[in-house]
Backbone:
DNA sequence: GACACCTTGTGCATCAGTTCACAAGAGTCT
DNA sequence: AGACTCTTGTGAACTGATGCACAAGGTGTC
């Protein structure tokens, strides 16, 4: 019943999962969800669901559960999913193209409105509806199109420079796919999606069981 | 100095970063790294570096630092990076193609040896050196090519089925890009890379500062 | 050899997040 | 109304991770 205090980071990371889980419930219909059901849908346990939702000041009704529509509203509110945050994709290699093309982002309020690439052959072209500009135009693009989020899918060497350019342009939210540690001012939120690291973590566990088997 | 006890998960997730940081040091040359330098390279703080490395039973020398070559060896050993873990990519949409194409994976010991897709036009073709098979052949592929890791880049509806097929084929490590919660036996390690969720977390913070500014 | 200077390894306090367990409320049935 | 069942909300214990601070143990210099 906390009236919107600070929401723990771990909870924030799970709210999207709950929201997605609620899609299993038809929209216009009054239905109730128990923390147990929601836990199943989100792949976590029920106690966590309840504690997470309590941070939103949510009121379910005891003995019954949560009203699915109202819960959806509350989580949406907390996450601010009603907002539209335009995205610029920096680096139109294979991955960048795949991301720019990913229609799912637009549906969720993250339209890819522009891209940059240093390849002269790509600059000036339009890939899947996304215009490709020179890296130097980043600042201009960000201002003109109200870009809120920058995606870095450049080669690792160019990643820090791109991050700097994004920050200089006023972008405070970055999702990076580059296998590099990026530095930026504290107020800039960086989420690093490091696929090689992920694979190496999987590799570590495979390695572990292999050792266990051999001994 | 713990002689290879259990390594905390948080440490495992950072070891690849240290390893990457060590690339700044030339291979054949004897050089020393201090925890401070390594901390900078990996974007964490020095105390964490030292505690992490202590879990490997590492011995740096006090007053000097760590021998870069030996440290690299030790981390490599712990992570098992010498192993090669063949990967199958399930779902050759935009993202799947980008992943299959990503030469960086092969360099790190994760060669993409095969792919699957349900599109009849793609089955039987070879994309960037990766042969595309029908989903039904997954079991066969896994056995024939000794696949260790499955990447799920299918549409969300097909994700759980694909995961089940991978598990049935004996794959115990899965990296999923599908925006869905996957269920699998406990012994299967699943790492979910959920891009929409990542964006929504960024969106949450943007939303927060916007609220703060408006008030 | 003594002293000054580094940097590691680690005990300890702290913090964030998870899980348990249960009282408190809401509905239902008799 | 009372008893029973259900599910929330939360205090409290617990787990894991983080960061501090300092002793222990090296190197180098005089």
Residues:
């Amino acid at each position: 019943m906390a009236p919107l205090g600070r929401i723990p980071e771990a909870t924030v990371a799970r709210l999207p999962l709950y929201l997605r889980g609620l899609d299993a419930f038809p929209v216009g219909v009054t239905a109730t969800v128990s923390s147990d059901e929601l836990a199943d849908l989100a792949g976590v346990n029920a106690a966590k669901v309840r504690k997470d939702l309590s941070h939103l000041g949510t009121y379910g009704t005891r003995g019954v559960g949560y009203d699915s529509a109202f819960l959806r509203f509350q989580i949406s509110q907390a996450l601010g999913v009603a907002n539209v945050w335009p995205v610029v994709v920096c680096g139109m290699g294979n991955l960048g193209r795949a991301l720019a093309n990913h229609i799912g982002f637009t549906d969720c309020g993250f339209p890819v409105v522009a891209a940059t690439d240093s390849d002269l052959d790509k600059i000036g072209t339009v890939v899947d509806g996304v215009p490709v500009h020179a890296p130097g135009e980043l600042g201009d693009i960000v201002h003109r199109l109200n870009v809120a989020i920058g995606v870095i899918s450049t080669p690792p060497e160019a990643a820090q420079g791109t991050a700097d350019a994004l920050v200089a342009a006023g972008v405070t939210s970055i999702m990076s796919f580059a296998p590099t540690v990026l530095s930026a001012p504290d107020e800039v939120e960086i989420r690093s999606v490091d696929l090689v690291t992920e694979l190496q973590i999987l590799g570590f566990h495979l390695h572990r069981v292999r050792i266990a088997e051999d001994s």
Observations:
- The mean pLDDT of chain B is 94.
